Amino acid sequence: MELETARRELSAGARREPTIPELAAHLKWSVETVLEALQVSAGRRAASLEAPTGQGPEEAALLDALGDDDAGFAQVDEELSIAHGLPRYARQVVRLRFVEDLTQAEIAERVGISQMQVSRILRQSLDQLRTTIESADS
Questions:
Q1: What is the pTM of this model?
Q2: How many Å apart are CA 137 and CA 135, to the nearest integer?
Q3: Residues near 84 by Cβ (< 8 Å), separated by ≥ 6?
Q4: What separation, in Å, do the N-terminal and C-terminal C-alpha atoms of the chain show?
Q5: Which of 32, 75, 122, 129 qualifies as a FRET site for 57, CA 20 to 30 Å off?
Q6: Which class is 72-137 in CATH?
């Protein structure tokens, strides 16, 4: 509720939506706290099912498909369970490399290890994942 009050106050003064850092400064909160509050407040607003959406044919097709089973869900579940077999530090390095698309040097700096160690962890992790996948396929 404090966040919504702050948004209204800052919007009225600036005649625009306030930025997240502006909200954080106004409320004397951290940016992370503001982001969490925004997520929570978004879940509290209900939208009418009768409200026009202004959707075109692509959006209508997407909404129709939302009720269908997506074959990709099973694949994602399988991939997540495979990666779960890696040690926590290895999962983190693999995630940083392939999800966040960081270079080995960037990962090394972020994790606090050498680039050579990152390279070894990635090689060992990918070898382990390859072996796990190959044994699951046979």
A1: 0.43
A2: 5
A3: 91
A4: 56
A5: 75
A6: mainly alpha
Closest CA to 37 of 26, 17, 18, 23: 23
In whole angstroms, how large is the CA radius of gyration of the chain?
A: 23
- Give the span between the Cα atoms of 73 and 21, in whole angstroms: 36
Measured between alpha carbons, how far is 96 from 93 in angstroms, rounded to an integer?
A: 5
Rounded CA gap, 10 and 4, in Å? 10
Residue 22 CA to chain centroid, in angstroms?
23
State the Cα–Cα distance between residues 35 and 5, nearest whole angstrom. 15
The residue count of the chain comes to 138
C-alpha to C-alpha distance for 41 and 20, rounded to whole angstroms = 14
User: 104 with 115: CB under 8 angstroms?
Assistant: yes
Q: What are phi and psi of 114, to 5 degrees?
A: -80, 160
6, with CB counted inside 10 A (0-12, 13-18, 19+), is buried
Cα 3 from Cα 41, distance rounded (Å): 9
